[in-house]
Amino acid sequence: MNYLLKKNSKKYRLRRLCGIVKSSNLSKLFRKKIKYACRYIDFGKHLNKQCSWGNFRASALLGKYQDKENLYVMRKNRFNMNYNVKQEQAMDNLNKHGSGKLVTKFFKMLRQVLQASKCLASKLLKSIYMQFQELNANGFPNKTDLSKNKGLISLSSCGQQIFTRSILLVREKYTDAKIWVCHTIAYSFHAIVTNLHNNIRRCIGIRKVKIEYTDHRKRSICPTSRKRQLSVIAVDYHATRRWSHVRRGSHHAVNVHPREHSFFHSKFTGCIKDFIQVFGPKAHHILTQKFEQNRRMFLFKALGQTIAFLFDTRDVHLVMKAEGRCPHHIDFKHLRVYREERDYPLGVLVSNGEVWRKQRKILNKHLVGTLAMARYFPAIDEVARLAVDELKHDAMMKKDFNVEEILSDYAIEAIGRVLYGYEIGCLPRTSKNDFHKFAETARINFGKAKKLLLLPRIVMVHHPEWREHVKRWNFLLKTTQNAIADFRHRQETAPCVLSGLLHSGELTEDEILINITDMMIASIDTTITSIQWCLHELSLNPECQQLIVEEYWNEGSNLTYHTLHGLKFLKAVVKETLRLHPTGFFTCRLIKEDMEVGSNRIPAKTNVAISMFVMGRNPFLTTDPDSFHPQRWLKDSADLDQFYQNVPFGFGPRMCLGRKVAEMEIMLFLLQFCRAFRFYPKNSDHIGHKVQLLLVPSKPIELILSER
Ligand code: HEM
Q1: Are 50 and 121 contacting, i.e. CB atoms less than 8 angstroms apart?
Q2: Of 104, 254, 300, 386, whose CB is crowded by the most CB atoms within 10 A?
Q3: Which segment, 26-30, 279-283, 353-357, 699-703, is predicted with the most confidence on average?
Q4: Within this chain, do residues 387 and 417 fall inside the same structural domain, yes or no?
């Protein structure tokens, strides 16, 4: 019969109620009274309907306490605790009407209660939501907080919406957290939880939820037992701790176990528009939005490609731990196809697996060790001084100068000296040469790459842009070939990467050609942009400029590679700038094995992307994430969250090959620049970000310089 009635209709609920009452050994008269009284009961249109249904049913069952005393106890426990029903009014009613009319009066009172609860429940909802917001802002409770009772949130057993919302909030942060619920009345709780099922499923985007009722010793318990009396919800951070401070036996633990869920049915899937935007100028903005919505992961699936963006440091750490000896990078298809068609080796940037590992090991010897870096220090220091001298000269002659132009010359010359060991003619400035053209071509290539990257191979090689791409790459390789030939003709050069590679004979000529070209390309724009951002932040914070200079004088003016690394504040300025403005704003890995991210399973061979921009500004990892505050890096910490806040060069064995060179270039330029000038922004315009494969300033950074 019930099934013929529309679900959730008043009549349907009534029938169900009667069914319950029947089974609870009540007198015939009592059942009749209930039936009658039900007509007057407000089912809580303004509340979540199912939620008032849960309360009502629980309350109705309690109606079997027919004597005055018990009703009072029930009323006190149940209603006064949660709904603030006026006790005296209820007592008056009881006294006036006596026990004969008790049942009818009980339902009248219940109606009042439900009406009163409308506004109270919404208040409660608000307050619990606020508590969660506060917890969100201050970080979720950790073990210590839990033991101090922080993180306990009182919850009305009626608050289905609240409960769902709370679970949702908790799950956003800790998907594998256990949710502990201690409740007022097991009956109503069970009803709510059963009804909640659907809501939870909808909210957290999983298909099936298995709910287990266990006590604090993990023993199964009957959900309909009526022993428990407390109304608390809390989160056990690592699901290892028991609620020792909650009275023994006074709570139930409800473990919400998501059943295994297919990754490809995740509700956090972006549409094709999102996917294209992720390669557009507002990509950083889109990712920040997705992070705010989903906190943990977001999936872009379009044009035959799937990328899962991970936002949580724990997941990123898992990726890093699982990547092994040979991390698999995203496929730079446009470069790979060009090289394969011409029988060139793929080089360290494009290759994967053992081929990559072999080359990377050899290149590491020349670009990563302290010994190698110390050898390049004098050359880069000299180029930094030359660049600042040029600026001083321009300032003295009151010439119009462009910091970006000088920075470009600096970046090309500095990497040129590291790779080739001789002056490549960009600083001191002379006329434009092939390396200027090389940098310009590389820049164009960077900008156009995304168009080709999105196309399938067969379409890509027939696209008009492909011909241009080939021409540009022919030029880039030719320039490197000429530079290598030039190196061979020279009698003497400073220590450099090329001499090391040629002498060791570990790489073939073609491998050297491709890797040197890639390194040159990878270094120029990344370094220019990073220095620009540093200058921008320092111009807004003149006290930091002063601190850099003071630190330099305190360390003693004899600068070497080792004393440079003693300049802690300068280092912190670079770190803080790259946290706020990571030039390469995301990196990718192809995961080799299935990975669990909360309730989702990411299958092996999926591209996983990690956004340094989003992680750097994650409010859960640091306080005041949008402000420039280098001091936060002055105390060393082994904290995982802090580590992943600052990964502008990537992480693991596949981390940027030129990290040490880039850091040295940036630090030396800033040091010389701050020693020479005080500088301020030319206008007060806000400078935002724009993505051109790299994260660059949305407007040119213009400075006013005054000599120190
Ligand atoms: C501030 C400047 C720089 C930034 C922000 C930067 C950033 C990055 C990032 C984020 C990656 C990907 C790392 C990963 O996937 O985990 C990368 C890779 C790479 N970078 Fe840099 N980079 C910079 C300067 C340089 C310089 C100066 C060189 C040249 C010596 C260079 C050469 C490379 C190469 C060859 C790779 C590929 C490494 C591999 O796949 O094994 N980069 N860089």
Answers
A1: no
A2: 300
A3: 353-357
A4: yes
Q: Is the separation of the CB atoms in 441 and 472 below 8 Å?
A: yes
If you measure from the C-alpha of residue 341 to the centroid of ligand 1, how many angstroms do you get, rounded to a whole number? 25
Dig out the tokens for 249 from the structure: 């036996």
- Looking at the DSSP bridge assignments, the partners of residue 154 are 232
Number of domains in the chain: 3
Nearest to 497 by CA among 485, 489, 487: 487
Residues 614, 489 share a domain: yes
Q: Please give all residues whose beta carbon lies within 6 A of any atom in ligand 1, as ranges.
A: 329, 348-349, 360, 367, 415, 518-519, 522-523, 526-527, 530, 583-584, 587, 648-651, 654-658, 661-662
CA of 526, closest atom in ligand 1 = 2
User: Looking at the predicted complex, does its ipTM rise above 0.85?
Assistant: yes
Q: Which two tokens stand for residue 326?
A: 């040979």
Q: Which two tokens stand for residue 88?
A: 């005296």
76 or 530, higher pLDDT: 530
Q: Is the pTM of this model over 0.95?
A: no
Does 656 appear as a known binding residue?
A: yes
Of 516, 523, 498, 574, nearest to 415 by C-alpha is: 523
Give dist(CA 83, CA 62) in Å, integer: 16
- Do 186 and 246 lie in one domain? The reply is yes
Nearest CA to ligand 1 atom 28: 658
Signed CA dihedral, 67, 71, 72, 77: sign only = positive
Domain that holds residue 60: 2-120
Element (H, E) at 35: helix 28-38
Prior bond of 428 cis (ω within 30°)? yes
